[in-house]
Amino acid sequence: EAFSPYNPPVRYLRTEFADQRLVRESLPTSNQRIRACLVSTRKLSSSVRTFTFELLAPVAATLPGGFGIFDFSEYFDSTYRHMDESNPQRVNDDYIRTWTISSAAGFCRKDKKLDTVQQIDITVKHKRGGAVSSFLHDKAAAHIEAAPLSVDFVGCVGGFCCFSLHAPDELPTVPPRMLWIAGGVGITPFMAMWDGILGLEKALAEDSRDLLSDIVLMFAARDDDLSLLKHFLTRKSASASGISLRILGFQSLGSNAHQGREARDALTRAVPGADMVLAQQRVERSDFADIERLSERETFLCGPDAFMTHTQTLLESVVGNELNIRTESYSF
Fold first, then answer.
1. What is the pLDDT of residue 322?
2. What DSSP letter does each residue of 19-36 carry, written as one string?
3. How far apart are CA 10 and CA 15, in angstroms?
4. What is the per-residue pLDDT for 114?
């Protein structure tokens, strides 16, 4: 038996966020919502764009890897429907969406805390038939040209993160060795974490301190979504010698195979050598076995449920009980 197509997506209460061990960093009450105005959009692949929103007031930032909550309901017809056979999900859709914030706030060395933010990025994949993702991808650019698009920003919440806070008067720390595993648009929290690491390195350098971290990033993508790796390449040259980033890319080809090959070739030309290895295959057990000091690494896994189950099973077969892993689900 299958679930009814009228089942609405799960929407958690604020208390349930806490039960899931998510740290509430900036959740205004309903009558304190902040308007967010779309100021720019940038194409990353044929199906993924980054949207930059300017908030009308600064908010406390989450540690990199958190997510923002946006209310798009004013742009959609929400009149009552009992049934809608052409699009059953529309009946119970509240048009509130949660996306990972793919940008990171800076770290203030003097105050030993995150700067407030007034501009945030979200990186969104166009889901065919998806009401809000289609609205953003198809109409957002036109709104920027004609009339500003603004929505209610409900707040931001942090949870899936490689940064640890030990005391309010200290800068956060990151593990000395990490394995980041991302499937598809599950790479977005790692985009923010990478920017955050470079920001933390800068703050520490002002105190003549070094940030030491050895990171392996494994990214599985379809077609030209592999291009999202450019986020890490354009910033890699700015990193200190104490930060090591090795990228393993796994590509599957589908309806946009030609664009996928072009994306892979462009990345190969940009980063020749061992710092980035790209393969047209699924992630396999041997790919984990070849990672140095795997059992010592803190692992962070984010992506579609099937991908997460597959890769975690492979990891456990290699590392066993020593596996130290944190996962992020897109079910919220």
1. 82
2. HTT-EEEE---GGG-EEE
3. 14
4. 82
Residues of the chain with pLDDT below 50 are: 5-6, 8, 13-15, 17-27, 30, 82-83, 85-86, 88, 237-240, 332
Dist. CA 19–CA 332, nearest whole Å? 13
Strands (E), the chain: 23-26, 34-43, 48-59, 67-71, 96-100, 107-108, 113-114, 117-125, 150-158, 177-183, 213-222, 243-252, 276-279, 298-302, 324-328
Q: Whole-angstrom Cα distance, residue 213 to residue 172?
A: 13
**28 close to 34: Cβ distance less than 8 angstroms:** yes
In the 8-state DSSP scheme, what is residue 157?
A: E
Q: Is the pTM of this model over 0.90?
A: no
**φ/ψ bin of 223: left (φ > 0), alpha (ψ from -120 to 50), beta (otherwise):** left
